[in-house]
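Holo prediction. Input below; ligand is copper (II) ion.
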Amino acid sequence: MTGKLPAVLGRIVLPFLSLSLGACNLELMNPKGAVGAQEKDLILIALGLMLLVVIPVIVLTLVFAWRYREKNTKANYAPKWSHSTAIEVVVWSIPVVIVATLGVLIWKTTHSLDPYRPLESEVEPVKVEVVSLDWKWLFIYPDYGVATVNQLPVPVGTPINFRLTSGSNMNSFFIPQLGSQIYTMAGMQTKLHLIADEAGTYAGRSASFSGPGFSDMHFKAVAMPRERFDAWIKQAKTVPAVLDKATYQTLARPSAKAPVATYSHVTPGLFDSIVHSAMTGSMPDMTHMPEMAHHGAGDMPEMARHDAGHMPAGSVSQRNN
Ligand SMILES: [Cu+2]
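Structure of the complex:
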């Protein structure tokens, strides 16, 4: 019995640990965009600061255990010892300095890496509207009127301004190599700003369990040079499939392992109507919700309701930059 336990632990825990660590570290430690790179630095700095405590504690534990072992007659024997100002100073001041440093660092980066904060760039951003569905990702490019499922082509070196919502369960949108993850929730809108600095294909996933099809809820973010992106848009506009209300409702039905798809035309305002439909329980007209209907969702926070983009352009752009 006792002999079996470590073997079982080894068989279950070790592969799991190496898998999870391997999967996370490789991607998080190998960022391909400015946001991801800053987050990598932040992780490493925070890790280093905490190791300033952890490593001495581990080393000193071993040193003390060895030095004050029973058989060592050379070590001081001090049964009455109770206080050392020097030790108190070290034990308190180092953690205070570390906590203060971490505090300042986190305060600053919480603001500089705020997912809602638009990225500074000379390049005009590309807008993408993300809808998490059971169990697939829908990406709408409102400026181009095209949409994709489970594939996210983006131009390199261009800020991507995401607006995100969910057509059903709560999910978490995450492209580890590009940076911050953010939640998607039905009836609400979240925002995220990312950039890819290198061309390549990056894994995207939901980082929030959302049901039986969740394990296959992957997508690929494909960062490509601007010319190739423009060519892709041109090509996408020739695809026969269109994303209208009926197509969306079919797409929104639960299904696992949804294949990559492209739609050449998206009904304008689809994203906003998906946000609103979660509040009213029905799929409204694509144009605009009657004021009664969505203002009747009394339990929604004011920001969330009015962040949905149907406000007069001036007031929205002022608040949202
Ligand atoms: Cu409103």
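The first helix runs from residue 4 to 28. That is the main takeaway for now.
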